[in-house]
């Protein structure tokens, strides 16, 4: 059975796709289908009805839910937005973990669709410059993807969404310092996320 929903440290994570526009050097998908004991490979991407059923089957009160699985959630905007709006109607705080390329993926501005569907957008920045990001994450959209990630974060913030950047701790300290500077200039907090492999904690 596909794992559309998994629990870690009191939070519920939503795994809605295995598609991704990046091929990050540090991504655990390259060497394992497993994350903290869950098989994250999907045979079928869930619909909103599948996600609603998964939430019902979970059977516990939800305080926070995070769209974060083995892929980029904005590949499945209908499921993301309908599930997010449904959870928020139940009083659940909803966060989207994203690589920030959703507008490129969908060829439209998705920011208005996220308003009302999520409370917070966590954008994986991971490098401070175009060329370094290209070498680390190999985005399918090319060298100027990094520019779009920054613009996406700015537009999410302007739309009233809570926004944060994240970086993995495998990048050089100098890159982290530069990412902090970019985040500070945009008025967006930044967290340094510990790189994880199978059966390690993930936030």
Account of the 3D structure:
With 203 residues, the protein is α/β, with parallel strands linked by helices. It is 34% helix and 19% strand. The strands form two sheets. It has a seven-stranded mixed beta sheet, covered by helices on one side. A two-stranded antiparallel sheet has the order 3-4. It is globular and about 45 Å long. It has one domain: Alpha-Beta Barrel (TIM Barrel), CATH 3.20.20. The protein has helices spanning 48-58, 77-89, 102-106, 111-114, 130-137, 145-158, 173-186, and strands at residues 5-8, 11-14, 34-35, 38-39, 64-67, 93-98, 120-124, 162-168, 190-193.
Lay out the secondary structure.
Blueprint: E1 5-8, E2 11-14, E3 34-35, E4 38-39, H1 48-58, E5 64-67, H2 77-89, E6 93-98, H3 102-106, H4 111-114, E7 120-124, H5 130-137, H6 145-158, E8 162-168, H7 173-186, E9 190-193
Parallel strand pairs: 2-5, 5-6, 6-7, 7-8, 8-9
Antiparallel strand pairs: 1-2, 3-4
List keywords for this structure.
single chain, 203 residues, alpha/beta, TIM Barrel, seven-stranded mixed beta sheet, two-stranded antiparallel ribbon, 7 helices, 34% helix, globular
How many angstroms separate the termini? 24 Å
Order of helices and strands: EEEEHEHEHHEHHEHE
Number of strands: 9
Helix content: 25-40%
Number of domain units: 1
Strand content: 15-25%
So what's the overall shape? globular
CATH structural class: Alpha Beta
**Helix segment count?**
7
In CATH, the architecture is Alpha-Beta Barrel
Biggest sheet: strand arrangement = 1-2-5-6-7-8-9
CATH T-level topology: TIM Barrel
Largest sheet, in brief, is:
7 strands, mixed
Unreliable residue runs = none
CATH superfamily placement: Aldolase class I
Radius of gyration: 16 Å
């Amino acid at each position: 059975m596909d794992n559309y929903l998994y629990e870690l440290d009191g939070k519920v994570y939503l795994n809605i796709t295995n598609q991704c526009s990046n091929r990050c050097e540090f991504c655990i998908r390259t060497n394992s289908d497993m994350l903290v004991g869950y098989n994250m490979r999907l045979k079928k991407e869930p619909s909103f009805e599948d996600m609603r059923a998964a939430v019902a089957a979970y059977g516990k009160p939800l305080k926070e839910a995070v769209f974060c699985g083995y892929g980029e959630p904005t590949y499945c905007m209908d499921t993301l937005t309908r599930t997010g709006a449904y959870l928020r109607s139940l009083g659940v705080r909803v966060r989207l973990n994203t690589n920030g390329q959703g507008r490129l993926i969908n060829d439209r501005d998705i920011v208005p669709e996220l308003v009302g569907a999520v409370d917070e957008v966590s954008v994986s920045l991971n490098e401070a410059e175009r060329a370094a990001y290209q070498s680390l994450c190999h985005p399918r959209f090319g060298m100027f993807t990094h520019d779009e990630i920054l613009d996406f974060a700015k537009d999410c913030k302007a739309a009233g969404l809570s926004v944060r950047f994240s970086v993995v701790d495998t990048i050089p300290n100098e890159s982290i310092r530069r990412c902090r500077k970019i985040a500070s200039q945009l008025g967006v907090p930044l967290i340094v996320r510990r790189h994880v492999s199978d059966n390690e904690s993930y936030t």
